[in-house]
Structure formats: structure tokens, C-alpha cells
Fold each of these.
Amino acid sequence: MIKNMIVIAGLILLASCNHGDERPNILVLMSDNQYWEHLGVNGDHSVRTPHIDSVARKGTRFQHAFCAAPSCTPSRAAFLTGQDIWRLEEGANLWGTLPAKFKTYVDLLEESGYSAGFQGKGWGPGEYGPGGRSRNPGGNKYDSFEAFLKKASADKPWTYWFSSRHPHRPFQQGAGAASGIDPGKIKLPSYLPDTDSVRSDIADYYAAVESFDTEVGEILRTLKEKGQYDNTVIVICSDNGWQMPRGLANLYDFGSRVPLIISYAGWSQQERVLEDFVNLYDLAPTFLDLAQTPIPGEFTAKSLLPLLLSDKEAGRVDASRDAVFMARERHAYARKSGEGYPGRAIRTDGFLYIRNYEPGRWPAGDPPLYGDVDAHMLHYSSPTKVEVIQSEKRPDSIFFRLAFAKRPAEELYDLAKDKDQLHNLADDRNYTVQKEKLVQRLDAYLLQTGDPRATGGPVIWDTAPYYNDRDKSPRPDATYRKLLELDSLYQYN
């Protein structure tokens, strides 16, 4: 009852902002492949993100935000639809489609009177036509935020999704050092080798993160110049983790944990840091709540509005938000006949449990290209991936095994002792009780939400169309062909 009163009070505040339609605008600023920790405000001292940090210091920063899938297309599909990826049919795959029967928050906001648009990738990569759509699921595409504002109706609220290409690979080589980032001061995760090449590559990634921050600053400046800052809810996030070995396309934190900041001038301007476990797809019902629009019953996500309107400044607001569930199906076309590497996971404060349904497959894609990591065809610069591939020749190196070697059917990590999730305890008898609890909770959730891998329904993802034929016949870059002794052409079909 108290929470409902808080929500109603917040909506009354929101209703005081506009003329005509009195609901708030919603602005989403999304980076492409960024790990949650890589922001100045989140404690990274090598990357400079002043514009994002300034928004965080006047809003709510979520320290346990995750994506529904560590892969661009399904993560964005879940974000738009408020549903777990296994409910979205072909929408669970990279380079797939999102069937039109799955309504997006954009569709629903437009139906309720909002103007809507997006810039950049939006939903994708994929083909929306085969799913029965006439446009990108993200809405109508614009070249710039200013162009959208010129077209948007002055007496209607709007929602706009700026979808940056940064910091997606390829990075501009040498950009990190050129911008003044010191590779020697970068804090390396223990799953990557400490070499000059890797440090320089991460510095270039940081430079790309800083480019995203610059874009955020430009859009916020436009928002203020147009006099719309005070009546706009601002969301800053990423679609999935960073594009490094053991990152993107992996259910470890480095592929699934993302930054999430939400700010609005009508709420408290005091910085809040919350520990509730949230998922990017929780934004869909949140936006509908903000717009006073009914949330469809098929949504599996939950609105964040009760958390945002809570007067708690730090810690956990909702005790039930103590875990998040994630999944992956097919990422890049990186195995014979287009097979994926399916998995499900549950992440809590203390543990990460992962179930790998096909442990006989190569988790990072078939050798020698390992196409689920970095440059999937080794067709552009990917220094860290190449460094790790070369480390296979060093018998004392663990980096190749961590990134590319086959994995068991179950993985369990004790996060209090193993922050980087390197030591699998699934077969350790000292953790039997903890593992069984996580398994039971994961299974219950998968059954409750109708996952075909749990219910015995049709599993379509290995055979679903992949709408980028070029990836099925990869041609590695000539430099890498020589360095790694690769063939000039590979055939996955």
C-alpha cells in the first residue's frame, strides 16, 4: 500500500510538467558493448565520463543492472518488449527477427499519444521484415535528436532512443594514448594477459567510451537549449558488456552487467546508489508506468518506478529483487550449420550459476576463428583476442582456456572469493547446498515464464534464419591470416 501511494505521488509530480499532455518525455542514451564498471562515477579512474557522471550525481545509479542476454539483438529485443528472450521466438538470436506479435514499449507509447523515434542501431542487427514489421522495432529512425525534436508535436510528450555505435569494435587504434589515457595505469581483469598490446587495446576502448560520453553531453545540451530538460526522464545504459574475451556473448558479469543511470528533475536531485537486482528489460514497464499506460500481462519484467520514487538513498529498496535471470542462444554464425551455444544463468549477491545446454560445442565458436569473440571473422583489428589465441602456445597460460576452451554443463562461482569468475565450483561438494538452491530457483523461473528448454516445447534457435550470409563464409584479414596461419576462407555450412 505504501509503495502504491509513493507511485501515485510520483505520477502526480510528473503530471505537473507539460502543457497539454502532462506526461514526461523519455530519453534513452544507450552505448554499445560497455561493462558497468567502466565509468568514472562507478570507480574507474582511467576513463573520463564527466557528462554521464553529472547525470548520475543527480539521479539513481543501479549497481546490479544486467541485460537479458549478452548479445546485441536479443538484449535490445528484451529491452523493447519487457520479456525474457526465450519468449520472443527468433528474437532470441543475433541477426534474427522480432515477430510483430511482440509489441514494444515504443508501439504502446505511440498508441497512448507519444511521439517516438530512435537514432543509430536501434533494434538489431537483424531483419525486421521477416517478422512482419514495416519498420525497425525501435520505431521511426532519425539522423539526429534535433531533427526528431523539430518533427515531434509540441503538445505531445515524446520518447527518443539514442543508440550509439560506441564503444563497439573496431576501436580506433592509438586513440587511447592520443587522448591522454595512460595504458600503464589501467586496471586489468585477471582473465586477460597483462601485455602492452592488451593495455593499448583497452585504452582504445576507453577512448570509445569517452566518445559516447561526448555524445551524451551534446544531446543533453540540445535538450536544455530546447527547454525540455526539466520534463524529461533521462536513462543512460548499455546493451551488454564489453567486447573482450569472456565478455560479450558470455553469461559472466563481463558480458551481462551494464551501467544504468536514471535521472529526472522532478524527483530528488540527490545522488542515489541502489543495490537492487534489475534487468534492462525492466525499463519497458517503467516507461509505460511513467506514461500512465497499462502494462501488458505478458511482460515478465517489473517496473522500476517504485525504486525510483523510494526515499531510500542507498542499498536495496525491494528485498525481492535479490537475483536476476539471463540467457543466451545463437550469437554470431560461428559454428558448423549455425549452431549456437545455449545457456541460462541466475546471478545473486553471492553466486553466479550457469547452465550450458551443449557443453560439447565450442563456447566461443569453432576454432580457429572463435567467432563469438571480438571480430567474429577476424576481419578487422582485434588485438586482445589475437593475443589470447597466441597464448595457447604457452603451456603456463590460462587465458586461452578461459576464453575459448570447452566448458562443463554447469558452472558455479563464489563471488565473495572470486570476483572475476575464474574458478568453477559446480562439482565442489562444499557448495552442493548452494548450487541446489540456485538450480531450483532457476528451474522454477524458467518453467514459470515458459522457456521451451524447460517445458519441452519446440527449440528453434539453432535452425532459425541468420540474416547475414557473409558471416557464413568468413574471410579473415590478410594480416591475421599470416600471423595465425589461417586459411583465406572458411565455410560454416
Amino acid sequence: MKLYDNNMVSNRWGLDARDYANNHYPVGPERDAIRHSMWNAFCASGWSVTVAEIDTVSTGHEHDNRDDDNQQAFNSAMDLNNNSVGQTVIHSTALGNPDSPAIITDLTSKYLSGGLWIWAGGGDQRSSEGILEKSDNSKIF
């Protein structure tokens, strides 16, 4: 499969992840962490995209955001971590599609146990002053 085709697949799963996160979480760090990890989990769980391919696409996406949107380094670091966590959550249906309920359950558990990274301070990313913490509000280091 060509990288262009993989971008189309990853975009489809990215839209599904965004819609789920936006419909189930208020604006804030949990929504962002779940959205990034879910996008990667959906892609890794679909039979048409390999984990290596989604890693290439999602890492490129973060570099593009940083370059085009002047995104702060802490935001990219957080997103890259959450993308990587999502790539380990692989649940597929018999038809080769992501098993959304299993993925959601797994990611929710990872979030509650501190497996994802979020910005400190809740609310908007700008309120964190670039400080990251684990999703259970413990320190990363």
C-alpha cells in the first residue's frame, strides 16, 4: 500500500477518533490524550495499515503541526507519547476493522492508570505553561 493510501486510511480513523473524543469529553487534556491515542489505536487495529506506517504518518503529522502552527515542544512530546501508546492498543474485528468498544475500554484504563501524558493545570493547553504529567496527575520524572 502506498503512503498516500495510508494517509487516507489514517485520516478516516483520525476523524472517527476526533468525533468520539469531542462527543464524550469536555475540552481539556483527557480529550486530547484520548483523541491521539485512539487515532493510533484505530489505525494499528485496522488490517490495512501497519504499526510502522501509522508511526510514520502520526510522527510526520506532529512535525507538520510544530512547523506550521508554531506548536510548543511540550505539546509535540505529549502527542508523540500518546500516539505511541495508542499503537500498542490493537483490537480488531473479524472483518479487520478496529474494535471500538475494546479500544475505548483499553485506552480508558491506560488513562486512569497514568499511561498517557497530559498537560498540567487542566483546561486549555495554554494554562499548563508547558508542564506535562501522567494522566493520573503523577509526575513523569
